[in-house]
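Much of what follows relies on a compact textual record of a protein's fold. Each token is a code from a learned vocabulary of local backbone shapes. The record below shows the convention in full.
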Amino acid sequence: MEFLLTSLVVCVTPGTGVLFTIAAGLSRGTRAAVIAAVGCTLGVIPHMVAAITGLAALLNASAVAFQTLKYLGVAYLLYMAWSTLRDKSELTAERESEPRSAGRTILTGVLINILNPKLTLFFFAFLPQFVSTDEPYAFLRMTELSAYFMLITFAVFVAYGRFAAAMRSHVISRPRVVSWMRRTFAAAFAALGARLAFL
């Protein structure tokens, strides 16, 4: 449950992938939003592979080092809470004037997430919280959890894209609502980081 909840909070928190999907939905409809969500989800794979292979090697080399990384991950979640709370930038989504092909939309979505180093940091901070140092199949466990994360990412991004037009007038264009959302996400990151520290 902690894993699913943390994944949901991370995916729902507006970022570049979410804004790209919203822009696709606003400018070209539901189909374009789904295609954009596919691209952004595929862009998670390189970060996932890098984190899983690195963490598996670390676990084989030293259980103590792996455990240390777990607590650094908790600190990173708390940092994400602080960063989210301090973020005062506007949340906007621009309409596109020219239509894009499905392939170009997917490629853009993939590149948006591949070029986001925070994803790799997140996986390094996130996965150790849910894998025991004496787990016999740690690599498979991390792969399974990462697959769940990708499914949640896709589902959340599709939901954002589908409801982009309706959500824009009620949420994105209202600074007070956006500020409230950021405070909620920050509190969720902090609470999850504190809870995971005592698992």
